[in-house]
Amino acid sequence: MQNKPNLKLSLIIGILLAVTGIIGQPLVVQANQVVAQNASEITDQTPMTAVVPDQTFQQILAERLDKPVEAVTVGDLATISYLEIPIWGGKIKQLPQNFEGIQYLNHLNRLNIAAALASDGAPDDIDLSKIADIPSLQNLEISGIFVPSERMPDFSKLTNLDTLALYQLITAAPGYEYQKIDNQIFEKMMGLPNLTSLTIEGTNIDSIAALPAIKASSPLTKLDLSENKISDFSPLGTMNLQGMDIDISLQKWGSRYYEIPRSSLHYDQQTHLLTIPADQLRGIGTLFNGEKSWMGKLAYDLGSLDISGELKETDDGWQTDQPLTQSQFSQLSSLSVRFNGNLDLPTPPGVNSFQQGNNIFANYITIEPDAGQPVTVYYRDENGDDLAPAETLTGSVGQNYQTTAKEFPDYQLKKVAGNTTGQFSEQPQTVTYVYTKQQADQGTVTVKYQDAHGQDLLPPLTLTGQVGTDYQTTACEIPNYKLRTVQGSQLGKFTSDEQTIIYQYEQLASDPFKPEPTPTPTDEPGNQKPGLLQVPESLLETIDNSLTEVSTKKHPQQTRAPRRTKHWWRLPQTGAAPVTIVVGLVGIVMLVGVTGLWWRNRK
C-alpha cells in the first residue's frame, strides 16, 4: 500500500516526459505549408516555406535552384546571385503577389522582374516593397508593372545599387488608363552613392525638376528618359553632364501651355491669319543657352473657330468660309489654340551622346484678353468718411463688372457717383456709394408732481431720448407733502408713443405748536430753529421751573423731568414774535445778574 503514492508520482512524471518529447520533436513541413517563425530562430536549415508565404514565389525560387519546393532551405536562398521573375523559358508563367522572403537572398546582386514574360501580367495588388530590403542588390530592372509611384520600392535603401531601369512601355486600350509612375518617383531615388545608370521609359513623368538633386549624390553616366511626357528639359542645364549618354527622344505625349495677352497677337482680317509671336514662346523649357527652334506653324486661320473656342485643323489647311472678323476676335474672352511642334534642342557641351529625335508636343496657347484697369468701389458718408473698406474689382478689357450697394445701420443710400455696372477698360474707374445718416426716432416722457386733486405742485418735467434708450425718473421732496403713489414706470425705455409718469403727494397735517417758518434774507440756516431758543446749561438753574418742555411726540400732554443737558425750550405761546422772546429772556438774565451783585456788596 505504501508503494501506491510512488506509483502515481511515477505515472505523472512519465506522462509529462512523453508530452514534452512529442512537442520537442521537429515539425515535418509539407510542401507549400508556411510556418511562421521568429527571425532569431531562422537558420540555414529552416525550410524556405517558413519565410516565403507566396506559393508562386516559392515555385519560382525552387525552379531557379532546380529543387523541389519542400527541399529548399534558407541557406539555399543565400546562394542565388541572379534572378529573373518569371524565369525565361521556365514553367512558372506568373508573377508573385508578394515578395516577402526575398530579403533572405542576401547575395543577390541582379534582379529582373518582367510582366511581359508572365501569361497573366502582374497582379493588380502586387506588393514590391520588400525588394528594398536586399542590401546586396546592384542591378534592378522592373518592366511592365503598372503601379503608381507610391507602390514602387524605396530605392534609396539600396545603397549598392549601380543600375536602375523602370519600363512602363505600353499603349492603353481605348477607354482604359494604366496606373503609372509620375514625378514622385524621384523622391525614392535620392542619396544613391553608386548609381551610374538610370532609365525611366514610358511613364507619366512630365517634369525633371528633381533630377539635379539625384545627380548631385550619384555618379550618373547614363540617363535615358525617352518616351515620357517631358516638355521642359531646362533642369539639364544645371547639371554636370560631362561624359554622359543622354536620351530624351520620343516625347510624344508632352504638352506645353502658354498664356499670351491679346495685345501681343496679330490678327489679319483679310487673310484670317492669327500670328503667334515666336518670342512669346521663348523662355518655356529653355535649355542651356536658350537656343531652340520650332518646327511647326505659328500662323493660323481663325475661320475654322468653332463655338467651343478651339481651332481645329482641316484638310485644306486652316481654311474657312466664314472668317472671324476683327470685332469678333476682340470680343473673345479666351481662345485655346492646339498645334503640334517638334522642339530641336542643341547638344549640351561635354556630353558623350545626345539623342532627342521625334519630340512632338501638343502645344496649347490660351489667348487671354488684355488686363483691364481696376474698378474701385467706395462706401462713404456725406463727409467722405468710409463706412466700409473699399473694394477693388479686376478683369479683362471688355469684361463686364457689376457693383452692389451695402446696408449700414442708421444710414440710407443717398446717391451713387460712377457707373454701378459697366465694362473694364484701359482706364481705372471708381464707383462711390454715398450714404446719409438717418435721424433716430425720439421718444418723450412727461413727469408730473401733483397733489391728490391733480393740481401741479411743481412744473411738469419733460424727458426726451432716442427710441430704445433708457430713461429714469425720481421723486422730489416737497415741504408739507409726502409721496403717496406713482402712476407709470419710474424706469424704462423711450418709445415712439408719449409716456406720462405722475408722482402723487398728500399734504401733511399742520402742527398747532409749531409756527410756519417765515424765511427772511437775514436768516442763517442752521443757527437756530424758528420759535426755538437754545439756552446754555449754566443758566438752566436760574430759570423759573414754570417753563414747560415741549414734547416732540404725538402726545404733548406727557411731560418729562428736566435733564441737565442741552435742550430746546419754548415759552408759552403769546403771539409775540421770536425776537421779543429773546429780548425778554436777555432782560431776565441781566436782572438776575444785577440782583446777585447787589446782594454780594450788601454783605
UniProtKB/TrEMBL annotation:
<keyword id="KW-1133">Transmembrane helix</keyword>
<keyword id="KW-0472">Membrane</keyword>
<dbReference type="InterPro" id="IPR001611">
    <property type="entry name" value="Leu-rich_rpt"/>
</dbReference>
<dbReference type="Pfam" id="PF06458">
    <property type="entry name" value="MucBP"/>
</dbReference>
<feature type="domain" description="MucBP">
    <location>
        <begin position="374"/>
        <end position="436"/>
    </location>
</feature>
<feature type="region of interest" description="Disordered">
    <location>
        <begin position="509"/>
        <end position="532"/>
    </location>
</feature>
<keyword id="KW-0677">Repeat</keyword>
<feature type="transmembrane region" description="Helical">
    <location>
        <begin position="576"/>
        <end position="599"/>
    </location>
</feature>
<keyword id="KW-0812">Transmembrane</keyword>
<dbReference type="InterPro" id="IPR032675">
    <property type="entry name" value="LRR_dom_sf"/>
</dbReference>
<dbReference type="InterPro" id="IPR009459">
    <property type="entry name" value="MucBP_dom"/>
</dbReference>
<protein>
    <recommendedName>
        <fullName>MucBP domain-containing protein</fullName>
    </recommendedName>
</protein>
<feature type="domain" description="MucBP">
    <location>
        <begin position="444"/>
        <end position="506"/>
    </location>
</feature>
